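Help! Submission page says 'invalid entity' but I think these are all valid:
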Amino acid sequence: MTQKIMIEQVTRIEGHAKVSIILNDDGGVQDAQVHVTQVRGFEKFVQGRPFYEMPSLTARTCGICPVSHLIASSKACDQILAVRVPPTAIALRRIINLGQIIQSHALNFFYLSSPDLLLGMDGDPVKRNMFGMLDKHPQIVRDGVRLRQFGQQVIERLANKRIHPAWIVPGGVASPLEAATRDQILSEIPEVLTIINRTLDWYKKSLNNYQEYIRTFANFPSLFMGLVTKEGRLEHYHGNLRVITARGSMLADQLAPDEYESFIGEAVEPYTYLKSPYYKPLGYTDGMYRVGPLARLNVASECGTPQADQELAEFHCLDKGAVLSSFHYHYARLIEILYGIERIQQLLNEPDILSENVRAHASVNNYEGIGVSEAPRGTLFHHYKVNEDGIIQSANLIIASGNNNLAMNKGVLQAARYYVHPDKLTEGMLNRVEAVIRAFDPCLACSTHADGHMALQVELFAPDGSLLDSLNRE
Amino acid sequence: MKKETKKDKKLRLATIWLDGCSGCHMSFLDIDERLLLLADKVDVVFSPLVDVKEFPEDVDITLVEGALGSEEDLHKLMKIRSRTKTLVAFGDCAITANIPSMRNPFGTEEVLNYVYLQMGADNPQIPTQGVPPLMKRALPLHNYVKVDVFIPGCPPSADTIFFALSELIEGRTPDLSTLTRFGA
């Protein structure tokens, strides 16, 4: 009966995701559910399309991380062609992927999350946004705009378009890098390094103010998964998967991404269009794992760039085992921005980076392709089967944000139990529950290959399903 | 003290995404530091970027990204239309239903059956609790409401968006014929 009440409420709310908080007989919080409320059905409607359309089509899954889909999709298509992608093309794909990660992390940290951190969880909801920060924190707003701009410009300079560029293609990339473009990006590196270091400085100093959130924002044991290099370093493009336990010990290492079906299962829950992946050997739902910046820094032994390695060493000291609080996704995002900038600089200075050999051509040589990469929010899987003409027969996408679905639901429950006082909802309580979700940074569009942005309606239900209270911000 | 004239009053701008990918909103953010100029001229009264939850009354300009995919989208659009002076179909999905409409030839039911029942996930079932039913077909905005301005593009470029907004703020209808196109 809950369902009916909620749909009726939908007419006067805004937002594609909702949270239900279900009470027990004593008036305490029994359960919480995050509803992601749209689905577009990419996996169905791509059937019958030629495989070479897939990068451009699946990029439209998400306007925030289209490059991530272009990368994973093109990698799946590389396997269908059965070609060896030229090394320079791989380096260029790595650069654009890092540009994507920088801009997406800057979007979350500065545009979406920092209003909570700087204006307060109980700040005036009308002003608690990036425009409202202009009065008190203009420099931080400008820093955020600049960092996101830098990431977007890396994409634009390589691919001629910031959003949904058509430059990453099966077999490589469409055009080589110009020397002038390389020099332009390199010339801006010192400025953006200064900005991210300035940001890390103030953020680390303010961590003490956030102890309560660190303790209560999805702070619980779970597995963590991410790509690593053969040496166990941070990796966003190739590599194999590593899974660690909450204590930080290795559960599985160097899992081949191509065999993901043997160790990742997906389940459907009735209350959300977003599926719930889990680590198969531990079953559903014990196989709950987290991905994304927090998980990547937890599984990686080092970054491989000097400044980020120093930050990572400090980060690893936050907890005895793995860093468990999802509040630390924020911190992890900042370290990954630093890493991304340093790594782009390294890659641009590689001797062959201007090589004109950037694309391998072939027709269909394999009937199956699997492309896996690290998107800003975590591990992204594209899996296609084609016929001899290269027409898509089936496709499966496991989206980065989806991997976190179980943990995000559990995190919302944890925060609801801590902050929600069922006798009366307050706006600040609502905002704290939302802030947990913001920490996970679920993709505003990717989830279930639909959009589900995170302007939330929170409703309280009694055990019989009747609506007790709801909160709108007017 | 200077009396506030109509010209000094900040316009009320809203933005929303329905069934889209948020790419048009990201392209809007790509106006970068010009966001700060814009903040001098308009109040963003409703948007995925701000915390206001209820679509307000008396909005001057609303950018609507995305197609109509679910019944919830349609309810929202009706409310937006009744509360907005200038409604802008923002990007190709809003104008043609674009990517979301690719499900139409299969039919919504077949898509849901495939994704949730046939793909081999555990607990196969079609989610119905707390999630809005999908419309039979994904459709563009003008199927249901009067649209005042169309900004094509997938997404429209940041420059196009900034130009269009600047013109609208000055009370003019932007001429976008040389600036953007479908699929741009």
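Support: the input was valid. A stray whitespace character was the problem, and the output above is from the cleaned input. The helical segments of chain B are 23-29, 34-41, 71-83, 92-96, 108-118, 158-169.
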